[in-house]
Structure formats: C-alpha cells, structure tokens
Amino acid sequence: MEKQFKLKEKGTNIRTELIAGATTFATMAYIMAVNSSILSDAGLDAGAVFTATALSSAVGTIAMGLLANMPFAMAPGMGMNAFFAYSVIIGMGYSPQLALAAVFIEGLIFIVLSKTGIRTKLFNAIPLTLKYAVGAGIGLFIMFIGLANAGVVVADMATLVTIGNLRQPTVAIALIGVIAIIILLTRNVKGALLIGILISWILGIIAQFTGWYQVDPGAGAFSLLPTAIVSAPPSLASTFGMCFSGLSEVFNGSTSLLTFFSVMFTFLFVDIFDTLGFLAGIATKAKMLNEQGELEDADKALLSDAIGTTVGAILGTSTVTTYLESAAGVQEGGRTGLTSLVTAGFFVLSLFFSPIFLTIPGFATAPALIIVGIFMIEPIMHLKLDDFEDSIPLGLTLISMPLFYSISHGLAFGLISYVIVKAAVGKSKEISGLMWILSVVFLFQMVLH
C-alpha cells in the first residue's frame, strides 16, 4: 500500500482513504439511476445503461487511482448526458449509435491529447489566481446542486429561483442532515459526511413509515426502502458495441462527416474544459498544486479521464468525466489513489446490490454537497479582493458556474475577464500565448453556442 500510494508522504492512512472513498461513492451513487433514466428517454435500454454506467465509472476511477494516484472518481457527466439524449438524439434526430460513436472518437482524441501532453499544457496555462477562483466557483456550484437536490432552492417563474417549502419532508430532512454534519464536524468525528448521508436516509425511511413522506413515483418521490438486497446485473447486450454501428453510419455515407464532427466537437470541447476546471479547483482544495500552480501527474489524471470516456462509449453510455462529488472524499481526507479504488469497488458492488444503492435519495446526499461546497470556497483567502485584477475574474467565475450550471462556462468568463483586465492595466506580458488562444476559443464557443 505504501509503495503504491505513498500514504505517509501524502499525510493520510488506510482508514482515512477507506472512509473518503465510501463518502465519494455515497455522494455520487445517484448517477446510476439518473443516467439510466435520461438515456432511456432517448431509446437506450435503462438496465443496460445502468450496468454501463457502473462499469465505465469503475474503469475510469481505477485508472485514476492506479495511473495518477489521485482521489478523484469518474462517471458519466451530468449535463453531457442530457445533451447526448435530448439534444443530439431526440432534438437533432440522430441515432443512439451515432451519438455513442461521437463519444468514442472524442475519447480516442482525448487519449492522444493526454499522451502528447497538450491537455497538461492547457491546465498549466491557467494562472494560479484563476485556479483559486475556479476552486471557489466550484464550491458555490456544489452548494447550489446540494440546495437544489434538497429542494431548498426551487425554480420560480418570477425570480428564476426561490426558496422551497421548508415544511416538505425531503427539505426538512436535508436541513437536519446539514445540522448533523455540522455537529459531527465540530466534534472532529471521522466520516462526518458519510454519517450525515446515512442519518438523512434513515430519517427519510422513518418519515415514509409514519406517512409524512408520501411515495409518488409520478412526482419523483420513490420508495426509500430497497425492494431486494441482491440482484443480478442487467445485461449489456443491447448497448455494447453500439458505437461501432454508429461509425459505420458515417463511413457508408448515411450521415455527413460535417454533422458527425460538429456533434463530436461539442462533446470534446465541453469535456476538456469541464475536466480542466474541476482539476484546477479540487487540486487547489487538496493542496496538490506546486508553487507555480501546476499539478504533478496531471497528464495521467487526464489520460484516466480519456480512458473512462472511451470505455464508456463502447459499453453504451455518454461521456465519462471526473466528478465534482470527489470533493466530498477530499474533504474527508482522501489524498491518494486508494480513495479512488475504494470508490471504484463500490461501483462494482453496486451492480449486485443495485436495489439498495438506487434507493439512496438525492435529499440524503444533498447535506454532504452543501457542506463540501462551503469548504471549497476557502481558496478565496489567497486572492486580493481589493485588487480588481483578482476580484473581477473571481466575481465572474463565482457567479457563472452555478447560474449557468457549467464549470466550463465559469472558466470561460473568468479566463476571458482575466485576459481583458491584465491587458487593460498594461500587463499583457503576463498573459501567455496559450491564454490568448483559449480566450478567443472560449469567446467563439459561447457566441456560437
């Protein structure tokens, strides 16, 4: 263990890594149910997608643990799966085979970009100041996701968002979960986030027994009690290898190359900068950056991400990417690839215990996300808030990520504003050529979005 993961050097131990890995999985287990639901709307078999989601998440996360020795987990990305299903397949009318082929080619391109070091150069080109801003922005984003999952924040026609009904059982239980985690943290209890998730789930079960929580699948209120303990993994037969059928559509001329590459490039662009933004933010929080703001073995982390995407496309799911919820494990002290392996192990186990894992509701994991988001705002302390060279990129990054529900959009606004401010004060020499190029690319991408 010590030789593989360098536990002492990273300031951690096996017990801490085990708790961290379990916490990360608990906060992102929802993806297996949600991804299956979204992709099944586009015509893919929900059971096959469930298995593809668990396996691709495990493969990518294992790669992250063994290749990069980093405590980050991967799974099919939220947002990208919606684009895959509702825009590409349902909206544009393309077949699931073609969409999976686009993801598959994207993954192969990622592998090439990672092996050649191009993605690492992109990561290192982002200034340390902006990495701090991205880290804090991701904190707000995670908080927003947690508050939304808890029902504390809801949509509103007049004000876009507003406070939810605090008398609703799911909202009240989530807030109790937040209070429980706060108390556990103040008492230095290890595994506070995971314990908070379990407390919220148990309270939900009690609420269901007493009738306070009403089961209504049509309204998204599912039973919190597992229907079984163990079940066989659903078959992959209907989705495995669909991407190769999609490639044949392109080669035989039934789909134009221009159309195919436009879809593939969209997947490629968003995934590149979502991953770069995440690594910048979470590595800052985990204190993994050196004095120059560079992440050691970033190329290996990015390669792991590319492997996950490629394997996921073959199995039958949308783009696999590094997950924000990994921040929960980092907050619990996870610092090495052992955390990732534990999370991956749970993904594999979930194939056989799906009735249990799929009953953990979003309102039970929401308290952990809210608390993690609060802690991730910490990098702000490294910035000079009274200096607009720091405060303008910071402000735009902070507001963009949660409001646009996108790490890449937040990174874009922060990066473009950083370049503009530096150029305006006569410090153009501090801006690398790659930063200028990225600014132009981001600008065109947003204009043409």
Q: Can you describe this structure?
A:
The protein is mainly alpha-helical and 449 residues long. The chain has one domain (2-223, 232-382). It is 67% helix and 3% strand. It has 20 helices and four strands. The strands form two sheets. A two-stranded antiparallel ribbon has the order 1-4. Strands 2-3 form a two-stranded antiparallel sheet. Strand 2 and strand 3 (160-163) form a beta hairpin. The radius of gyration is 21 Å and the shape is globular. The N and C termini lie far apart (46 Å). The model has no long low-confidence stretch (mean pLDDT 86).
Give short descriptive properties of this protein.
449 residues, mainly alpha, two-stranded antiparallel sheet, 20 helices, 67% helix
Topology:
Blueprint: H1 2-5, H2 14-28, H3 30-41, H4 46-68, E1 74-76, H5 80-91, H6 96-115, H7 118-125, H8 128-150, E2 153-156, E3 160-163, H9 169-186, H10 192-210, H11 242-251, H12 257-285, H13 298-315, E4 320-322, H14 326-331, H15 337-350, H16 354-357, H17 362-376, H18 388-404, H19 407-424, H20 433-447
Antiparallel strand pairs: 1-4, 2-3
